[in-house]
Amino acid sequence: SSIPTSLDGRCGPNNNNQICSDNECCSKYGYCGRTDAYCLIANGCQSEFGRCNTSPTIPSTTVSSTPTSLKDKCGPKYNNQVCSSNECCSKYGYCGRSDDHCLIANGCQSEFGRCNTLPTTPTTTISSTPTSLKDKCGPKYNNQVCSKNECCSKYGYCGRSDDHCLIANGCQSEFGRCN
């Protein structure tokens, strides 16, 4: 069976192992995108589900005649485009909602979208299964332990595949079983 290509912008082990299409990267949170937040290995890019970079990208300044090339781009390098609905413009000229895009300390451009002065903190409302932490584990996710017979991957996701369970792949035995 072939690996499913993402149709909804999601990727990785918690999203049916979908891979990103069109030269996109799979972020540590399971979303497809093209910015450093998604693509840098240092930021947790998942190379099994899309492309990854080892160093920050420097956006090219050539402007194509195709308007689609300006989708999700912003700032002076991209015709002073402003990001849409509640998105931030990163210092590299990409629209998004991560701290890489939105923090003023990271170079957020307030003229082209919203910006934050403080990092976004996940809400810690306690419910029987906090949806924001479902299927997540490890130090990034309040030291949550995987349920039943599941393994905790090096990226903090619960599952049963070799990506999750093999110690050689970074399985975290403190938060689930490992092979």
TrEMBL record:
Residues 8-54, 71-117, 134-179 form the Chitin-binding type-1 domain. Keywords: Chitin-binding, Disulfide bond. Gene3D superfamilies: Endochitinase-like. GO terms for molecular function: chitin binding. It comes from the Eukaryota. InterPro entries: Chitin-bd_1, Chitin-binding_1_CS, Endochitinase-like_sf. Disulfide bonds join 11-26, 20-32, 25-39, 74-89, 83-95, 88-102, 137-152, 146-158, 151-165. The keyword Disulfide bond applies. Pfam families: Chitin_bind_1 (PF00187). This is Chitin-binding type-1 domain-containing protein. It comes from Neocallimastix californiae. The lineage of its organism: Eukaryota, Fungi, Fungi incertae sedis, Chytridiomycota, Chytridiomycota incertae sedis.
